[in-house]
């Protein structure tokens, strides 16, 4: 049986790595409706939610962006900062007033290079988040756009 996905920061990183990451955090706030980033934009930072919620969305031609997932307390907002070419794969909007820790992507990537153990822990955490988000996106898009009765064909 597979272990559960750990996308929440306190459970995802060992204490020493979590402390190292949090030492470079900057506290930020955004009102509801603020766009944190747009699909296709430059991924130069990321956030961990303290309070509030963020909706991740995907552009759908001829329609409003489809909300793929809503994120809350202690969850990572943004993973594209870690992987070249550092371009956002989704969009993100504060669904409610948001307080978060913000991280400069370049600074975190440098820490990952300097300390391979820290880098592996961060990469593992982000990898689990990516896998979870891809599954959520697939499920949500099937819910929104799949034909009724889709599933096993007979």
UniProtKB/TrEMBL annotation:
**SMART domains listed in its UniProt record:** cNMP
Annotated signal peptide: none
Which Pfam family, any one of them, does this sequence belong to?
A: cNMP_binding
* Gene3D superfamilies registered for this protein in UniProt: Jelly Rolls
Q: Which InterPro entries match?
A: cNMP-bd_dom, cNMP-bd_dom_sf, Env_Response_Regulators, RmlC-like_jellyroll
| All copies of domain Cyclic nucleotide-binding, residue ranges | 9-111
What domain of life does the native source organism fall in?
Bacteria
Quote the PANTHER family the UniProt record gives: CRP FAMILY TRANSCRIPTIONAL REGULATORY PROTEIN, HTH-TYPE TRANSCRIPTIONAL REGULATOR ARCR
User: What is the protein name stated in its UniProt record?
Assistant: Cyclic nucleotide-binding domain-containing protein
């Amino acid at each position: 049986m597979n272990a559960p996905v750990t996308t929440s920061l306190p459970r995802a990183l060992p204490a020493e790595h979590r402390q190292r990451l949090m030492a470079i955090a900057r506290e930020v706030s955004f009102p509801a409706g603020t766009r944190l980033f747009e699909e296709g934009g430059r991924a130069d930072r990321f956030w961990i939610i303290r309070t509030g919620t963020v909706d991740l969305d995907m552009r759908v031609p001829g329609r409003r962006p489809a909300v793929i997932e809503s994120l809350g307390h202690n969850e990572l907002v943004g993973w594209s900062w870690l992987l070249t070419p550092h371009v956002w794969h989704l969009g993100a909007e504060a669904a409610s007033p948001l307080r978060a820790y913000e991280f400069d992507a370049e600074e975190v990537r440098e820490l990952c290079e300097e300390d391979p153990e820290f880098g592996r822990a961060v990469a593992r955490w982000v990898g689990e988040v990516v896998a979870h988000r891809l599954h959520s996106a697939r499920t949500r898009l099937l819910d929104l756009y799949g034909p009724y009765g889709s599933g096993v064909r007979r």
